[in-house]
């Protein structure tokens, strides 16, 4: 029985705070959906073209879910929110696929540093989970003013396409418009290529560049038009009459891949006993106030059933077994923020057990990091924290991470933050992540400055110290917020807490497409 009091003042205050954050999230995501804005969207439509998300909607199976990834990429930068590309996972002809669609309403779909990172992340997901990669291409190539940040790392886009193909993972390019310069290698290195008649333009150098380089006069169509590539160069495998035809052919290609979903037995899926809407009132506005993650678990796992592991030991970390949309999972969830030696040892043992059982792990983060202080250092907190991080790093089952609240210090690492390559990582609007809390970080800088002044025999500037603290706290607070972090692709998206079960269910279905690597050669060490 859940002890959560949904009629209490604390619950109502937490719910109102979360709803306010969700309103901000909706506004920022609406900016991403707006692309280049009304003027450029209208111009695109006048040319008889579909928008990026419309192309995706027509490509995926009717009434199926599309899990969009990193919609806030580029947030807070000089580039529009969304970074001129839409990426995500959708079901095409019953097959889960990674989709990458250029948004030509944003600077002609030109690739900037954030769209590059977003595209590379999509390719990583396709490779890790053995999902077909479908590129919906219409791009003017690199954003030239930022070429110094794109040119060298951008070569990985083409390397990834060849690695996917070599691994037997299909790659498909549907070309709706321009795909020039380096972008020409996207269809050039894809297994299957569809081009739209009179719309697709694929060439290494367009007419102006050819004229400058060689003096040759050539028009778009003879240089790189769809008809030419279908009849002369052979680059196009299929010539589509229009965009709708290209999407139909794309679906037909996927149908002919002879791929099935993961061979898993039929699962019984039971809804949680508690309303997902109640997730809005669990996380406090002040993340220093602890909350019980079992209340979250009860609202996302099947039947709200959770078989807790070591419930009386290392109680600041909750571990245990459950099912989510029929998939077995192991859960690690922070209960009181701080990780002590007991929690670290408990986590290391639990992670090894999950590896032995070939069970994916779900990390629910709300941690301020590992405990500091003389007694804890003498008690071995470093070696125990290292033990936990080692177990997480070398675990061979898929990891899924949700940042619910705080994610500070090495706790971010031990609870499988972005640097530890979880298959997917999502954040709630309440999440915050940094090397430490703003107040603590500013306080450390103040103590260091004070000690330095004393060592020089100077009087410490208290007024300057107060100003420094305020500036640092404001900076760290801004840089630890979920929109800022998501804008830099430190997660795969900020989600509504009420969508957590659905998002995790989709991710578990995705990771089941690839076989899990074998566990390590050691048995489980009792910590």
From TrEMBL:
It comes from the Bacteria. InterPro entries: AcCoA_carboxyl_beta, ClpP/crotonase-like_dom_sf, COA_CT_C, COA_CT_N, MCCB/AccD1-like. Residues 261-527 form the CoA carboxyltransferase C-terminal domain. PROSITE patterns: COA_CT_CTER, COA_CT_NTER. Residues 18-269 form the CoA carboxyltransferase N-terminal domain. GO terms for molecular function: ligase activity. It holds the Pfam family Carboxyl_trans. SUPFAM superfamilies: ClpP/crotonase. PANTHER family: ACETYL, PROPIONYL, PYRUVATE, AND GLUTACONYL CARBOXYLASE-RELATED, METHYLCROTONOYL-COA CARBOXYLASE. This is Acetyl-CoA carboxylase carboxyltransferase subunit. It comes from Streptosporangium carneum.
């Amino acid at each position: 029985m859940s002890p959560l009091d949904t009629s209490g003042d604390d619950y109502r205050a937490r719910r109102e705070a979360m709803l306010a954050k969700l309103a901000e999230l909706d506004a920022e995501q609406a900016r991403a959906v707006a692309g280049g804005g009304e003027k450029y969207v209208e111009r695109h439509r006048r040319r008889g073209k579909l928008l990026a998300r419309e192309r995706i909607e027509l490509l995926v199976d009717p009434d199926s879910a599309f899990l969009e990834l990193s919609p806030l990429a580029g947030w807070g930068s000089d580039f529009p929110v969304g970074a001129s590309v839409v990426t995500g996972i959708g079901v095409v002809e019953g097959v889960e696929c990674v989709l990458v669609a250029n948004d030509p309403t944003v600077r002609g779909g030109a690739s900037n540093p954030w769209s590059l990172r977003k595209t590379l992340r999509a390719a990583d997901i396709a490779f890790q989970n053995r999902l077909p990669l479908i590129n919906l291409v219409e791009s003017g190539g690199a954003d030239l003013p930022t070429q110094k940040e794109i040119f060298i790392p951008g070569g990985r886009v083409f390397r990834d396409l060849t690695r996917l193909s070599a691994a037997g993972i299909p790659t498909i390019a549907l070309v709706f418009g321009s795909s020039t310069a380096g972008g020409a290698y996207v269809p050039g290195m894809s297994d299957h290529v569809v081009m739209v008649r009179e719309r697709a333009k694929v060439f290494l150098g367009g007419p102006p560049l050819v004229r400058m380089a060689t003096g040759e006069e050539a028009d778009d169509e003879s240089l790189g038009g769809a008809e030419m590539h279908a009849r002369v160069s052979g680059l196009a495998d299929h010539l589509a009459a229009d965009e709708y035809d290209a999407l139909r052919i794309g679906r037909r290609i996927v149908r002919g891949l002879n791929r099935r979903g993961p061979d898993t037995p039929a699962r019984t899926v039971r809804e949680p006993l508690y309303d997902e809407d109640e997730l809005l009132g669990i996380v406090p506005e002040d993340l220093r106030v602890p909350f019980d993650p079992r209340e979250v678990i009860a609202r996302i796992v099947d039947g709200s059933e959770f078989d807790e592991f070591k419930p009386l030991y290392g109680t600041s970390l909750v571990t245990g077994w459950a099912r989510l949309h029929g998939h077995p999972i192991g859960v690690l969830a922070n209960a009181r923020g701080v990780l002590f030696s007991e929690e670290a040892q408990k986590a290391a043992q639990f992670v090894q057990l999950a590896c032995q059982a070939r069970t994916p792990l779900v990390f629910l983060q709300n941690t301020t990091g590992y405990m500091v202080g003389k007694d804890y250092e003498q008690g071995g907190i470093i070696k125990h924290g290292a033990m936990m991080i080692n177990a997480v790093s070398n675990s061979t089952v898929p990891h899924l991470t949700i940042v619910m609240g705080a994610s500070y210090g090495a706790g971010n690492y031990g609870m499988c933050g972005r640097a530890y390559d979880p298959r997917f990582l999502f954040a709630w609007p309440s999440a915050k992540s940094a090397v430490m809390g703003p107040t603590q970080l500013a306080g450390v800088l103040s103590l260091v400055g004070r000690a330095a002044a004393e060592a020089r025999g100077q009087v410490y500037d208290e007024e300057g110290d107060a100003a420094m603290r305020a500036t640092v706290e404001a900076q760290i607070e801004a840089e630890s917020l979920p929109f800022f972090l998501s804008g830099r692709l430190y997660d795969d998206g900020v989600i509504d807490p009420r969508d957590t079960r659905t998002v995790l269910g989709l991710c578990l279905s995705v990771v089941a497409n690839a076989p899990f690597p074998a566990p390590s050669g050691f048995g489980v060490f009792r910590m």
